[in-house]
Specification:
This protein has 357 residues and is of the alpha+beta class. It contains ten helices and 19 strands. One of its GO terms (molecular function) is aminopeptidase activity.
Length: 357
């Protein structure tokens, strides 16, 4: 058995154990990243997987016959629905099968019920919980993606100047990531300058950067199905005391949260730490999103670093720490790093320089 096959065999063993604990025998997998995780197939948006007690199948259509044969670690059945469901039906005789309730439409559930000899049971988060802890190979891909993003950002820095257009900066950064080896950007690059910085997800526009502004750049690379994610806020010349205070507060909040990362820490407590720092600057109300999220096959996945989360950090998780403040008519600041939780504490994977006022 190759290492590639062994990795996926271990994942199938783990998901079968989780299914047994959930009281089901099989799982119909429809969430694309979960299909990828269990099969290795890199076009999972056009595929499903069936995990059985002693077998597994990848279902996709004829466009992917060769690709699936080359990539999939599990047997492949080429067809479209309802043929796929008809193929699965006899395999499910006498079994209790679960489906991913957050990733299946009502129409798709109706099709399962119409073709299968058993009533499917709704399940939530079975595969996602397995994906929380990254293997060494997964961490390596994420770290490589982040290294590409950091190198591309270093190339971009001389271009971030008065007179540059947000859209041109985003295009240059994404082009550099591809040239340096990325499969593509992790998401649409955010470039938000001046008052547009008050938009947490401000798409790059035709706005021209001006003297005395802050510009927030949120960027990441995709490599081998895995993602990176980081953010920097830069100053264009001399900025106001209000802008400087915003930046200082966010940087202190981020550094405080980073220092507290270790196994056993509640993600909600990290979020609270950052908010406490921002509160000392009377900026807690301007922090309108969670402190961070997991990164892997999705750029946003578990664990969630928010006030309502019950999740606890474990070694092998890859997370972001990204406090931000956003004030209409003034602008915004966000600083984000990508972090691996280790047995000893943590290791920051992102290395682009930060402003220091």
């Amino acid at each position: 058995m190759s290492k590639h096959q062994a990795d996926f065999s271990a994942r199938l063993t783990a998901v079968r154990s989780a299914l047994k604990s959930a009281g089901v025998d099989a799982l119909w997998v429809s969430q694309p990243e979960n299909v990828n995780y269990l099969s290795g197939f890199s076009s999972p948006e056009d595929a499903k997987a069936l995990i059985l007690p002693d077998a597994a199948w990848l279902y996709t259509d004829g466009r992917y016959t060769l690709q699936a044969a080359q990539e999939s670690a599990i047997p492949v059945f080429i067809a479209r629905s309802p043929e796929t469901l008809q193929h699965a039906a006899p395999l499910l005789s006498g079994l209790k099968v679960g489906f991913e309730m957050q990733h299946l439409t009502v129409a798709e559930l109706g099709a399962l019920q119409a073709h299968w000899p058993t009533e499917p049971a709704p399940l939530s988060g079975v595969v996602e919980r397995l994906r929380l802890i990254k293997s060494d190979a997964e961490v390596q891909l994420i770290e490589q993606a982040q290294a590409i993003a950091d190198a591309a950002f270093a190339e971009l820095l001389p271009m971030v100047k008065v007179g540059a257009r947000e859209q041109d900066l985003a295009l240059a950064l994404e082009s550099a990531m591809r040239r340096l080896g990325a499969d593509g950007p992790a998401f649409e690059t955010i470039v938000a300058s001046g008052v547009r910085g008050a938009l947490p997800h401000g798409r790059a526009s035709d706005k021209v950067l001006a003297e005395g502004e802050l510009v927030t750049i949120d960027f990441g690379a995709r490599l081998g199905g895995y993602f990176s994610d980081s953010t920097r806020t830069l100053a264009l010349g001399e900025v106001s005391e209000s802008q400087r205070r915003m930046y200082t507060a966010v940087l202190e909040a981020e550094e405080t949260a980073l220092a507290a990362i270790k196994p056993g820490v509640r993600t909600a407590d990290l979020d609270a730490l950052a908010r406490e720092v921002l509160g000392r600057y009377d900026l807690a109300d301007a922090f309108v999103h969670s402190l961070g999220h997991g990164v892997g096959l999705n750029v946003h996945e578990g664990p969630g670093l928010r006030s309502t989360s019950e999740e606890v950090l474990q070694a092998g998780m890859v997370i972001t720490i990204e406090p931000g403040v956003y004030i209409e008519h003034l602008g915004g600041v966000r600083i984000e790093d990508l972090v691996l939780v280790t047995d000893e504490g943590s290791r920051v994977l992102s290395h682009s320089p930060k402003e220091r006022f």
